[in-house]
Amino acid sequence: MIKDNQVHLNRAHVVVDGLIVAGSYVASYFVRFGLLWGDRDHAEHLPMLTYFSVLYFLVPAYLFLYYMVQLYTSRRALRLWDEFMDIVKANIMGILSFLVILYMIHQNNFSRGMIVIFFFINVLLTTVSRGFLRKFLRYIRKKGYNMKHILLVGYSRAAEGYISRILDNPQWGYEIAGVLDDFVPIDTSYHGIKVVGKIEQLSEYLENNNYDEITITLPLDDYDRLEELVAQCEKSGVHTKFIPDYSSLFPSNPYTEDVQGLPVINIRYVPLSNSFNRMAKRAVDIVGSLFAIILFSPVMLIAAIAVKTTSKGPIIYKQERIGLNGVPFKMYKFRTMKVQSEAEEKKGWTTKGDPRVTNVGAFLRKTSIDEMPQFFNILFGQMSIVGPRPERPQFVEKFKEQIPRYMVKHQVRPGLTGWAQINGYRGDTSIRKRIDYDIYYIENWSMSFDIKIMLGTIRYGFINKNAY
């Protein structure tokens, strides 16, 4: 629910910012040519329509600049002044780019005065809108909405400092459920936040509660337990942060947040946890899946007829897979096997010469045509064009106990193709190697990386030598 709320909030940010950019630009036009100088003769050198046509490029360009300065990244502890500086920074880059483009196309009649007015109006209105948004969020968080529930692991000076900052800033929307520690007695309280159990009970608390974040605040002499605790948290799929007890040992880097001078280190950086990144990727998925459905509709029609006429049973096979945030969904494929009982289906992966596979099914598997119905899964939001391949529930339960970091793959939508697949890890291949490639993709995602994988899928073809 928290993630859904954040997505809606960032969508609202984008829409409001787009309207403000457009409104500021229109206002600057009328201020420049109607109110300040009334220089309508100059306006006639370039028609109003020419000025307003710039909005087609200006609005998306400014939204991209806001994204670049992280205005759409969730930073609850960010002060309004720091957000204002980010707004100014983005607008300076926007104005300079605007002026450079005008110079390059030798456009001397475009009013530079109007551009300067636009800069000040846009900065003012965007900052005011962010201020109102903060007041709105503060109001709804007092009502108990848009909250993040946190469990602290380890009682230390860092834990006390973090608790103090959270309690001093209720507008951030954090709620600390308690602290786990082995040395401080249960029910020990610091500003009303109690020690509720032992660190060894972490798995139990993760299983029985729905936390948004686990924040590890161990003292320096307990760092040897960090790897074990991180593994437990990641197995559950809960976002994990680490707050060092001695902050001077940890220089600032892209994986840290600053909570009024207290560095908070994210154990794992997932670019797609950023709502704007998710929205951009989702937009590509929608357009790409629609295009693919239209493009491959003749192939899918032929495949459907072949499946129906060569073996008894449904054309489409629906199999339960585990998707984003560990939520099950039905993945679509053209049926390539004879109709089986539920027990037979759970036998395992297909192997070479598997008697369950039909002759048509073997061809569909080899050419990956059997995967094409998953374009509908992508369109419906259950999958992405690029991402880790989804697995069946019984294998997820097995692998999360056997393979470190396995559950990290469920922090993003599963994909039709992925980094592991274009590197040869498809079908009956090493699951550990596949996970290594999946985690690399998750931690290094970018839109250009997705494009590279799509091109790699086309380049290396759809033929899968490991598909039986």
UniProtKB/TrEMBL annotation:
Residue ranges of every copy of the Bacterial sugar transferase domain listed in the record: 281-459
SUPFAM superfamilies reported in the protein's UniProt record: NAD(P)-binding Rossmann-fold domains
Gene Ontology CC terms, in alphabetical order: membrane
Subcellular location: Membrane
GO MF annotation, one: phosphotransferase activity, for other substituted phosphate groups
Entries under InterPro entries matching the protein: Bact_transf (IPR003362), EPS_sugar_tfrase (IPR017475), NAD(P)-bd_dom_sf (IPR036291), Undecaprenyl-P_gluc_Ptfrase (IPR017473)
Gene3D superfamilies registered for this protein in UniProt: NAD(P)-binding Rossmann-like Domain (3.40.50.720)
Protein topology in the membrane: Multi-pass membrane protein
NCBIfam families reported for this sequence: EPS_sugtrans, WcaJ_sugtrans
Protein name listed in UniProt: Exopolysaccharide biosynthesis polyprenyl glycosylphosphotransferase
Species this protein is from: Butyrivibrio hungatei
